[in-house]
Structure prediction request, 196 residues.
Amino acid sequence: MSPTDEELVEAFRGGELSAFDTLVARWERRIRGAIHRVVGNEDDARDLCQETFLRAYRGLGSFKSEARFSSWLYQIALNLCRDRMRRRRGRTLVSLDDVEEGAQELVTRRPSAFDLVESRDLAKTVAAAIGELAEEQREVIVLKEYQELTFQQVAEVLGVPVSTVKTRLYRGLAQLRERLERHGVRRAVAVPATLP
Prediction:
């Protein structure tokens, strides 16, 4: 059985530097995916992911063990995203060139070329609509729907009550639905769960 995040944190604090490498390997893809969903640009996601782990490495000595390591890591990542987005106010937040290559449809047959093109277009439309949401709603949707965190975990990451998380999620999803309908998407759309 592999060690928990908290056991790896303690091992790192005890001088076992390879424990941090294990934490990075365990969380890098999910953190980069969350960042990409928030900022909408793969280059920024890579940079901010590296900065997230650099800050985690430097701050692990002051990490309070009553919090979950993953929640703490998501907090660092989201704070970096917020800072980056504040500096870029007025620019497009979602780069359609960097959007995930197609939403995965649950079908038993092999998708045709037309299906693949249609799913890529849908993924681009969904990503653009998410990019138009308010920062608070976008963050909650990314953490809950894409990163599959529980309401409690999202609340820990954002430092808000669970009721606030639920309100932001439901309002964000309602606005997302409205935006998608304006773009001609009228059928139910599953939020793609795959990471970039």
